[in-house]
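Q: I'm building a small set of examples for a reading group on sequence design. Run inverse folding on the following structure and report the sequence directly after it, with nothing in between.
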């Protein structure tokens, strides 16, 4: 039973972590803590998004162009982003490694060197750890708020830096801050007035599911915050990719079984990356997730 217990939360990396990362963590009882610094992985330039956009477009669909009327970039359009995050899950009794995958649908609008971005989480998947699997139900994923941010390119051409700079992505899950969303302490109890029922299931916070083997199945009711910084490059008119740095916090407000409130520390390992590819404007979350390997050139590399 100890082996199952120590991994109950090891696979759980917050319901909102966004876009990103769209990741999680925290401090205190029942929390998961992450302080990540990812190393770069070289990712070959690919025009798969353009190819798929043209092949999948139906009559009447609009496929966005690659270049602006003045010969510069035209990043305006619908994009998909996938984060492949390699992480080590650790408790006092042991731990394990795996890759968390998150996919989002992104709307980009470019005006000169300014790019505004709105990201909607489509899918969150965490690896099974020693027989324990965490699943994010559709209600939890669909209710994650969008992330909006603005970036400034250093030039209007391929090779431009694509970085969050002083405007990091901040993803809040199931709570409304009363002051600074990036630094205010997260709620720790269900009765905190900042907590709300994000997925409208009658439970505090956002609900995620756990299958813990011999310990049975259950639910976690969580709040979370992820603060993410992207460091990337415009590799082509249809691809933006690079690394991400982030800190994330998650608090388990309550659970269907007390044992599911165990504490685990998660640390990102080398090789974690993000990649955006440009899509037809008609693509939906379901379409992107179902064609993940086509758009992103295969599955996330196995880790370790």
């Amino acid at each position: 039973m100890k082996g199952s217990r120590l991994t109950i939360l090891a696979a759980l990396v917050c319901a909102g972590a966004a876009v990103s990362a769209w990741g999680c963590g925290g401090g205190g009882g029942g929390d998961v803590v992450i302080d990540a610094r990812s190393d770069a992985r070289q990712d070959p330039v690919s025009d798969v998004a353009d190819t798929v956009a043209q092949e999948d477009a139906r009559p009447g669909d609009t496929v966005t162009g690659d270049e602006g009327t003045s010969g510069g970039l035209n990043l305006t359009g619908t994009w998909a982003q996938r984060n492949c995050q390699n992480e080590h899950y650790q408790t006092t009794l042991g731990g394990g490694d795996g890759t968390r995958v998150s996919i989002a649908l992104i709307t980009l609008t470019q005006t000169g060197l300014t790019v505004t971005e709105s990201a909607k989480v489509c899918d969150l998947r965490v690896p099974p750890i020693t027989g324990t699997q965490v699943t994010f139900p559709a209600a939890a994923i669909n209710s994650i708020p969008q992330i909006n941010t603005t970036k400034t390119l250093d030039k209007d051409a391929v090779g431009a830096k694509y970085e969050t700079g002083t405007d990091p992505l901040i993803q809040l899950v199931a709570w409304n801050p009363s002051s600074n969303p990036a630094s205010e302490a997260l709620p720790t109890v269900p009765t905190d007035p900042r907590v709300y029922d994000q997925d409208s299931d009658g439970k505090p916070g956002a609900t995620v599911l756990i299958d813990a083997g011999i310990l049975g199945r259950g639910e976690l009711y969580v709040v979370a915050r992820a603060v993410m910084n992207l460091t990337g490059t415009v590799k082509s008119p249809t691809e933006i990719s690079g690394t991400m740095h982030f800190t994330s916090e998650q608090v388990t407000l309550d659970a269907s079984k007390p044992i599911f409130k165990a504490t685990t520390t998660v640390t990102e390992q080398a090789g974690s990356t993000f990649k955006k590819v440009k899509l037809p404007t008609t693509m939906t979350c379901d379409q992107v997730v179902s064609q993940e390997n086509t758009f992103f050139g295969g599955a996330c590399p196995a880790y370790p």
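The longest strand covers residues 217-236.
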